[in-house]
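ok so i was messing around last nite and threw this chain in just to see what happens. nothing serious, just curious
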Amino acid sequence: MRTVQPETQSRNLSQKTLNTVESPDSGFQIFEQFYSGTRSIVPKSRTNHCVIYTRVSTKEQADNNMSLETQKRYCEKYAERSSLSVIQSFGGTYESAKTDERKEFKRMLDFVKRQQHSAGRISYIIVYSADRFSRSGANAIYIASELKKQGISVISVTQPTDSHSASGNLQQNIQFIFSEYDNQLRREKCLTGTKERLLQGYWVTKAPLGYDQVTKGQTQVITVNKEGELLRKAFEWKAEGLMTTEIVVKLSRIGLRVTTKRLSALFRNVFYCGLLSHNLLEGKVVEGRHPALIDKETFLRANEVLQTKRPDFKATPEEELLPLKRFVKCGTCGTTMVGYEVKKKHLHYYKCNKTGCKTNKSAVQMHETFKALLKTYQINPKLIAPLELALKDTFQTLQKQDQGNTKALKDHRAELTKKLEQIEERFVLAEITRELYEKFSGKFRD
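result:
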């Protein structure tokens, strides 16, 4: 038997390889393993599956015109002419297209991306026009580009372009950019009109807590509601010096629940004293046409109190049997006197608080001396009549406030009683479960 040496075998293999490379039919496939660049991904074959996306910009457009139905009908006709199968429709509601953070828009994108790994893979997104897809310009171009990498094309029914060609892709990008430009023009016009309305004294957004608002065309009617009446009390209490936390408790008792943080923000809102403040006014404040909840003086007094930092203090309980401690001073050294009790004898004494001073007095003796001192002070008879008037006026003012609080409490109680009756009726009719009934009925009873 003839043995082939390894060197001879290697030379034979190399020669065979070179013969293969030099063969015209073989090409250079053997060298492809040394390719250092990025290999292009072969695009998936297109299907005839598509989705439809429709939208309008505002709720009024969605409620008052047929635009959504028109968009969908045109998209369905286009799909039918192009032999495309509509898998699902998205949108059908109002969504602003100035950003791409839209609920239905994102739901549609998530759907088509999920379908890429299934038999119902989507190849087309059909919209009525480019601005229905997006008005975000560069971001819209990016989204369309990313979709194209996954084999998904955006088709505009009223602005047809072949986005697979360079010229068609350019036309679609121009449409996206023009949509953004058109959106910016609309915004500028809208902001100019909004600013003019503000300068005329009209509020342009939702009225704050405490007001009801009705706007029809150029007519705007803003009125104070029940919550506003309670907020008026809150401003008055704040102007009198009550702490915000105290006011929150008082408001909750008469039917208005609001957090301390929110109430502090309401106290700073000039809307309640009849003025308007808005970002478009660039720091200016103008007189509003709405009714003021409180006068400007009360507003400023409330905010003076709000901005004043209360000094830190520690509450110390007063001893009923030693009312003069920290009030009277030692006759020897002038230091404040404190009190103590001899528990075995149940006797109370006052003593000087200065170390080394031995002043010590019986509480009974001190109280009798103080009573005698008070008797020496008499009110001038000429001041008695004015004092009576002042006391009566103060009493009537407080009484009026209490009556207002009582009315608010009664109204709130009647409202809760009505809610309790309604929830009992729903429970009897088996419209709600026992768990819900017990939860809310207990809350209303409390």
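not much to say yet. The first strand starts at residue 49 and ends at 56.
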